[in-house]
Amino acid sequence: MNISELGEFPLIKRLTEDIKIYHPKETIMGVGDDAAILAPLGTTPITTPTTTYQVVTTDLLVENVHFDLTYVPLRHLGYKAVAVNLSDVFAMNATPKQITVSIAVSSRFTVEALDELYAGIKLCCDKYKVDLAGGDTTSSTSGLIISVTALGTTEVPVKRDGAKENDILCVSGDLGSAYAGLQLLEKEKRHFLANPDMQPDFKDFSYVLERQLKPEPRADIIKLLRERGVRPTSMIDISDGLSSEILHIATASNAGAVIYENKIPIDTETYRALEQFNIMPLTAALNGGEDYELLFTVSPSDYDKIAHTREIRPIGHITEAATGCNLVPENGALIPLSAQGWQSFG
Amino acid sequence: MNISELGEFPLIKRLTEDIKIYHPKETIMGVGDDAAILAPLGTTPITTPTTTYQVVTTDLLVENVHFDLTYVPLRHLGYKAVAVNLSDVFAMNATPKQITVSIAVSSRFTVEALDELYAGIKLCCDKYKVDLAGGDTTSSTSGLIISVTALGTTEVPVKRDGAKENDILCVSGDLGSAYAGLQLLEKEKRHFLANPDMQPDFKDFSYVLERQLKPEPRADIIKLLRERGVRPTSMIDISDGLSSEILHIATASNAGAVIYENKIPIDTETYRALEQFNIMPLTAALNGGEDYELLFTVSPSDYDKIAHTREIRPIGHITEAATGCNLVPENGALIPLSAQGWQSFG
Question: What confidence tens digit (pLDDT) does each residue in B71-101 have?
């Protein structure tokens, strides 16, 4: 059977469903969330129970699948490669501590180009106080490959599976902007290929371009939730699109969800950027991906502690599983949400 | 500057030399050994000091750079991808506990092919009692890419930098065999390309072929050293070749070394296999790589505890730094050892 027939999520399920766990006290949770949860133990028994969990997450970025060096500066790419992994660490309610970075490069890259890539990697490490602790450097027969693994610690890991009926669904920042930025960059690439003398026309779109090229993981949201004494009942980062992530939380929590179109935060620049492509901003928010915002649920009693917070918006609530996951549009009947995932096996 | 002009080791040094460490109590040692050493701590102070360290190592394997699917079965490849990372964990004197596996595949792979790859991954996890705790699955524009990160724990990490003058240099198993196996496989590939009806002639070479296709990390050596109460003063796994690894230990320990040609363990099948290629077995042992044996130093007072152990051989000793690293040949003058590393940036 061809991989593209099966799709990403069923493929992952198939490859990982019969995994045995040999260290249940140390591998608290494996495949199936933003990161694995570990509790490293020594070879001699520890008499005082540890209250610290470690989370581990990893991402593989492949040239011309995940990034296009025609328009992505290497420094931005290095930054983003780290940022997307830190986003997964924050989505576990953890503080990132270390990363490892492996790269494979073909000989068309110069040492100075790799300096630029690493400058971006180090800039992100610096901003989020993360230690670059190891890696591997090797050659590639074609293009650039970057593999980042991030490690973090938390005393209160938050998984996808804890959402309860009536919990409030919240989202940080705004959605669809990274996808809008991608459309602009792809358009300018087409123009550039047709006419290499052309200069890109990016004025008035700095926000959506930055969202695509240099996303920031939401350390500030995790900090705010801690300061306000709010423990989300479930959390995930929005890498594939809001729709897909809501389905992940609902499936893991054995619940349903309802969200309201008029509550989904979309920036005005995103509207403006997508207009020229005839793409509905709602579609970009639901299925665009790469926003790296946090989607989380809080119990109704906790919600007041974060209501009226500029960077957090309530977009709906958790329902019983039988109702499924639905969008209430501004006009018309309920629309069931559907997952996209990577459609990139081509 | 082109990457191939600079070479692997200087490139890694250049990219990682200005790394800042933000969590010195948790990131005990970063880049520069077989694995990083971590000591995960929580956000509240831990009053009883932890005696458990965690090690983290990662490897990136790229099709047609690190493996050739013309002759490497996917099941063996999966096994080896895990085994080489576990070898790095054992080389820190640690017990492997978890791995993450990321793969990028092009659409020419079938789901059944990935099943085979994962069967090998799971077989190695099963043999060494390691939990497959996470990963990433994505598409590739060309070929197969595998990134494995391995995590382990130890109360006594052994680094490269602890070798002292007069310590005995020991090596496990035998050397050069994986390189001999590679030569046989490459030869059969050339014959196969010339005449596809030809059947490979691998009889009498099962040992060297297995060493290349399905290496076993030396868990048994770590167990034996623990049972005998021997703590190596330094340790490294032999992935690039004995010569390169001795130089790593000597440089890190600010020491020199002398090894004796007639002490280097080489299997008779390796001699026999290499004869037809006019490759000196000594060259294969020193520079062939991929043996995944352990090279370590023990203090002279500890050596008696492991003398006469079938799987451990003394090959020389540590000297003062000024003498450098040298081989004493069976006939003739001292030969200085030189590093090879990956010469694969092409």
Answer: 999 999 999 999 999 999 999 999 999 999 9
Q: What was the pLDDT predicted at B44?
A: 45
Q: Is A216 a member of any domain?
A: yes
CATH number at residue A25: 3.30.1330.10
Q: What is the pLDDT of residue A272?
A: 96
Q: B7: domain range?
A: 3-154
Residue B23: the pLDDT is 85
Question: Could you say which of B94, B127, B154 is where a domain stops?
Answer: B154
Q: Does A199 touch chain B (CB under 8 A)?
A: no
Q: What is the 3-state secondary structure (H, E, C) of chain A?
A: CEHHHHCHHHHHHHHHCCCCCCCCCCEEECCCCCCEEECCCCCCCCCCCCCCEEEEEEEEEEECCCECCCCCCHHHHHHHHHHHHHHHHHCCCCEEEEEEEEEEECCCCEHHHHHHHHHHHHHHHHHCCCEEEEEEEEECCCCCEEEEEEEEEECCCCCCCCCCCCCEEEEECCCCHHHHHHHHHHHHHHHHHHCCCCCCCCCCCHHHHHHHHCCCCCHHHHHHHHHCCCCCCEEEEECCCHHHHHHHHHHHHCCEEEEEHHHCCCCHHHHHHHHCCCCCHHHHHHHCCCCCEEEEEECHHHHCCCCCCCCEEEEEEEECHHHCEEEECCCCCCEECCCCCCCCCC
Q: What is the pTM of this model?
A: 0.92
Tell me, yes or no, if B198 comes closer than 8 A to chain A by beta carbon. Answer: no
Tell me which chain A residue has its CA closest to the CA of residue B102: A60
Based on the fold, state whether residues A312 and A174 are members of the same structural domain: yes
| Per-residue pLDDT reduced to its tens digit, A190-205 | 988 888 887 777 778 9
Domain harbouring A183, CATH code: 3.90.650.10
Contact B107 A27 (CB under 8 A): no
Nearest residue of chain B to residue A97 (CA atoms): B23
User: Is the pLDDT confidence value at B115 over 50?
Assistant: yes
Q: Does residue A50 fall inside a structural domain?
A: yes
Asked if A98 and B26 come within 8 Å (Cβ–Cβ), the reply is yes
